[in-house]
Design brief:
alpha/beta, TIM Barrel, Lyase, Ornithine Decarboxylase, Chain A, domain 1, six-stranded antiparallel barrel, 25% helix
Length: 361
Amino acid sequence: MPRPIEALVHADALTHNLARVRARVPDARVWAVVKANAYGHGVERVFEPLRAADGFALLDLAEAQILRSLDWRGPILLLEGVFEPRDLELCSRLNLWHAVHQTQQIDWLAAHKTHQPHRVFLKMNSGMNRLGFTPTAFRSAWARLNALPQVDEISLMTHFSDADGPLGVARQVAAFELATQDLPGERSLSNSAALLRHAGLRTDWVRAGIALYGSAPDAPEHDSAHWGLQPTMTLRSRLIGLQQLQPGDQVGYGSRYTADRSLRIGIVACGYADGYPRHCGSGTPVLVDGVRCASVGRVSMDMLAVDLSPVPAAGLGSEVTLWGRGPQAGVLAIDEVAQAAGTIGYELMCALAARVPVGLG
């Protein structure tokens, strides 16, 4: 019998979340962002549920090849563009659209021999200071691209640093609009946080990432239920051991938890080698047979411990939901677990270990 841990990807939730995104921005086209192997879900698993998107956006050429092999003939956008000149050959062959965010990429395009001009997304650094041309350099970059026979349509793009918080997007939108005034081309501004929190922003394309996977981009201010999103990944296991503690007994490495009363704990076949965050301390929420419980002690490589006081009927083999959908219609939002670990739901999805079997559920 294999170790009783598995992750499930919920196709119905992916389809639901895409519909929620469309409802927020009905006049925009939607990129389904599937970078990082679809945020840990698997590109092949999310493809059919997200096929109703207008395009797929990602980073790696290998992921683009997977989509083409799945018979996707629509737009695919390389969000970071190409990394070396020969990548442009694959862009020509697979008909990939790609971001241009630095001068060297324009140089490579100028030297590229192709019969099919490329669709590019020229990226502006409107204040995040990560990738893109500054507002003062943006128009000259656009002029260079526009003069190249290797380039067809030029779309305009930027990325927000604070769409999920109180600083908002106004400063960056103003910088973008000033620098792109009178330039032709479609615009792509909004990421998940912007399309949810600033739905009235004018943009031709939105880049829906974490929202598609059922995590709130502005957690903990809002949870996924606030935005009408459903969890798309469940990580579940079972109890493989039981211990009866007396007052003063301690649990786990470093003896970080000391029982203050008599209690029964369960040992779960899940640890940081499975991708569960080691920094989750005592009190992290866990569902046991659909009942909300809390972890005790440190997370170890292959196991963690749970206080079974809320569910006295639990025993060996009881189902444990680390995040996602549990039995009896229970749901444990991945953002809650991430908050307990001092991180975000994105990281937990992407950190799921290769040794965890993943299926559709």
